[in-house]
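Try this one yourself first.
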């Protein structure tokens, strides 16, 4: 992927990055926001961020897709928080009866070799750590919500996820 060229201001490189990644990133964002228009706005924000911050990409820390997916996830969560109570259109009872037929972000990524490697490495983690990472990075759940679900302090959850990510990085050979 041509993030270095994007950092040098090459518009065609940004177009290439967009063409290669927009469907995956849109899937991640849509899974978090559940609103197509909001997801489209956030996707645009993601690529503006990529244009402005491509020079900060460090291939030693993450693959290009992982870096982009992290930006997309964070922007979507920021938008979700900004929307706040306005998102409460349906009641919780309605939510239980609505089936989401669309594959989740992790399922969409499984077609890639990177996703298969990630799945294999996730299986090496204990169930709690794996579930927390999947919820936070693929389900769009905030660390605070993951900590509440698990009944642990936020700092403990952040540490659990961080240690799990370090093990994943080692497993993936990054």
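Now uncover the answer:
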């Amino acid at each position: 992927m041509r993030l270095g060229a994007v950092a040098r201001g090459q518009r065609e490189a940004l177009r290439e990055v967009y063409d290669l990644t927009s469907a995956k990133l849109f899937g991640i964002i849509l899974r978090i926001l559940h609103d197509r228009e909001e997801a489209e706005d956030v996707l645009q924000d993601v690529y503006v961020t990529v244009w402005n911050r491509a020079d900060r990409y460090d291939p030693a820390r993450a693959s290009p897709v992982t870096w982009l997916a992290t930006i997309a996830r964070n922007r979507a969560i920021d938008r979700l928080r900004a929307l706040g109570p306005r998102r409460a259109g349906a009641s919780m009872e309605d939510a239980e009866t609505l089936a989401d037929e669309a594959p989740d972000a992790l399922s969409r990524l499984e077609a890639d070799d990177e996703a298969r490697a990630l799945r294999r490495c996730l299986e090496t983690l204990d169930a709690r750590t794996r579930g927390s990472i999947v919820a936070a990075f693929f389900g769009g759940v905030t660390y605070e919500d993951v900590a509440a679900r698990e009944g642990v302090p936020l700092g403990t959850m952040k540490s659990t996820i961080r240690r799990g990510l370090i093990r994943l990085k080692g497993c993936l050979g990054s």
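Discussion: The chain is about 70% helix and 0% strand. Residues 88-100 have pLDDT under 50 and may be disordered.
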